[in-house]
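Suppose a colleague, Dr. K., hands you the sequence of a protein chain of 487 amino acids and asks what its three-dimensional shape might be. Before reaching for any lab equipment, you can write down a predicted structure in token form. Begin with the sequence itself:
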Amino acid sequence: MEKYDILTNIPDKRELVKTTSLKFKKDLIDFFGDDYKNKVCLEIGTHKGYTTRVLSELFKKVISCENDIDLINFAKDLNKDKNNIQFLQKDVYTTSWNFKDIDVVFIDCNHEYSYVVKDINNAISLCETNKELLIIFDDYGLQNPWRGVKDAVNDFLEQNPKFNLVKFIGEDKGSDCNPRANLIAEEGAICSYTNKNLQRFWRIFENTLYSTGEVLSLGFEESEGLRIPDEYLEKQEFMIFRTAWGIGDWGIISAMPRLLKQKYPNCKVYLPSSKFIKKLFDVDTNIMELVFKNNPYVDGFKDDMDGEIFHDQYRIYNNKKTDIPLIEQMLKFWQFGEKEYQDSQPELYFSDDEKKLGDEIIKQFIGDKEFGCLLVSDRYGTQFGKYDEKTFNNETEKIIKFLKENDLPYFYYTFKPIKYTEFNFINQVLDMKNMDLRIQLYIKSKAKVNIGNQCGTNHLVSRYSNVYEVQRQFPLGHNFIKGETYL
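The predicted structure, expressed as tokens, is then:
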């Protein structure tokens, strides 16, 4: 089937005022293409089912709601060759929207303001935590007295930072596609609602922390063209700073000192001291010293830093490509080109004493044999800090499968005694739980394989060992680590 063949024998809005224009339908086809073939669309207002027919080509399933049984019967007959449309006779204003797993909502129902507001609120209530919902609106540019779509959408755009305009579709402002009156704005609109918590954007200036407000996404979209000021780079004194406190949070940017010095050979690179972090955020941590200890590209840990500090929230993201490592996003802001940040995997530098102790432990317990490391952290089997049976079963199944396929002796770290875990069948070498963390990292860096749930200490050794992690975040977003294999 050719791209627009589905539009054959479908009327334009000029012929049937209560349907969408052919331009509107073509724009839907162009926007969604094949990208949503495994998604579910909820249509509010079937009418005669012409637009429903187009939606059935774009989505795995269409659930179409209409209160008028005669219109439902017409739409069923029109679409009798389609097997992925579920028609429901439903008054959407007096009954609950008890739908699940909805990815897109098409709203073309009552156009009075209060009803459109109800439609939007009902639609966004379907959006699951940490997911995005697309909402399509018809008759956005309809003239009075039914300009409620435009006013309701605009009010949500102004008042709700999680609700954003994606693009306008259909006929342009001034079009005569509606015989009642020319359009006062574009015929339709596609908006997105993201069910994520807002995040606070911090500014650190002259050793003082300021809040600049709450945002949906930290950083700047690539198309905005924002980069670190040239005047800052000219000073050649830089501080690498994160606003998170886990070992993985700092570990994933551990190649940054070396890369900065490669691009700016005369610069000085500093990290904040524990004292500086405590002063700004009232957090007690020494993670920076642990991750960057012995790093020859770090010029010191400072208790203060004059001027602006461009921390991890200053980064360049791409909405069309989510899995870009955080360090690459940060370095883009620091005016790096793509070739300049290719070698950005996490890196560690061990002292001679650390190497000696680590080698002695390996030699004592395993000799010259190949070995692996198993990590089961306290996040194992959880989502958002709570036990989740689906996650637990998925992680257990995949780790057991890997361990059986890779029959090695294993150093291990488990958040509870290994004999009480599902992995007590492995060839156990040594429990590393009470071992100095830097020595743990050295031993992990020497292992043939590292296997476990997603955790920072695994990220840190991905340059030196084959790291396999069971993915628990979808998508990985900026936590994606090059060189790791996600199970």
